[in-house]
Amino acid sequence: xxxxxxxxxxxxxxxxxxxxxxxxxxxxxxxxxxxxxxxxxxxxxxxxxxxxxxxxxxxxxxxxxxxxxxxxxxxxxxxxxxxxxxxxxxxxxxxxxxxxxxxxxxxxxxxxxxxxxxxxxxxxxxxxxxxxxxxxxxxxxxxxxxxxxxxxxxxxxxxxxxxxxxxxxxxxxxxxxxxxxxxxxxxxxxxxxxxxxxxxxxxxxxxxxxxxxxxxxxxxxxxxxxxxxxxxxxxxxxxxxxxxxxxxxxxxxxxxxxxxxxxxxxxxxxxxxxxxxxxxxxxxxxxxxxxxxxxxxxxxxxxxxxxx
Length: 308
Fold this sequence. Notes:
By secondary structure, the chain is of the alpha/beta class. The chain has helices at 7-20, 30-39, 44-60, 62-65, 73-81, 112-126, 153-158, 182-187, 190-202, 220-227, 233-236, 247-250, 269-282, 284-288; strands at 82-86, 95-102, 170-176, 208-214, 239-241. It has a five-stranded mixed beta sheet with strand order 1-2-3-4-5, sandwiched between helices. A hairpin with an 8-residue loop joins strand 1 and strand 2 (95-102). It is globular.
C-alpha cells in the first residue's frame, strides 16, 4: 500500500498519527518529518516506529535533550569546545558530510553532557532545513510559531515539495581525534557515551553511510578498546581509520568540499562552527518550544536494526 501513496498522502497520515499519539509531542517540523520517512525508504509503518523510538530515547535522557537554551553561557562554551558541524553541499552520492573535532585540550574542563546537548541542539535545527545549501550564511530562522489555529493539515500540504530530493541520502562522519588523549576518554561519562551512540545508531533520522577517523594518535588501539563496546558491529564495519595524512580520506570524500583545515576549499571548521551557532541562535524559539519536544508518556520500541 505504501507504494501506492503519494508523498503528501504519507506525510498527511504521519502528521495525523503524530498529533494523536500520546507518546509524542504536539508538533513536528515538516522537513524533520520528511527525514524520518526518507530514512525508512518511504515505509510509513517503519517510520512510525523510528519516530517513537527517537522520542523514547530523548525522554530517557532529559539532561541532554531537554531544557536547551543557546543563550546560556555553558551551552555556548560547550558548543565551541567540540566542533561538530555539517559541511556545505552534498557528495556525488548525495551524502551530507559532518566534521567532528575536539578544540578544548584540557580534559579537566570537559563537559560530556553539555557537549552532547549542544550537538543535538544544532542537529535538531539543521534537520528543519534542506541539505542542498552551499552557503550557510543564507539560512535564516524557520517559522515555527504556533499555527494550529491559522491553518489545518490541508494548508500544510500545500507548502510541501513533490519529492524528498532536497534531503541527503545518508551521512558521512569525519572524526578528527588528534587532540583526544586517554585522559579525555577517562574523563568522559560512560552514560553519556552510551546515550550518544545509542541515539546515533538507533534513532537518528538519517542513515549513517561511513565514518572516517583521521589524525589517529599512537594510542588509537586503547581508544578503540574503550569505545567499541558502545558501537554496533554494523556501524563499526563502516569505520575507516586514516593513520597518516588525508590522501586516503580524499578517496572517499571529495576534497573540494572539505574545510581548508583538511586541504579542501570550504571555509575553516572554526568559521563553519560559528556560522551554525548563529543559525541555532536564530532558531532559539523552536529549540525551546515544548510543543516540539515534550513527551508525557513513552515506552521502549525494538531496535530499528531489526526492521531493515
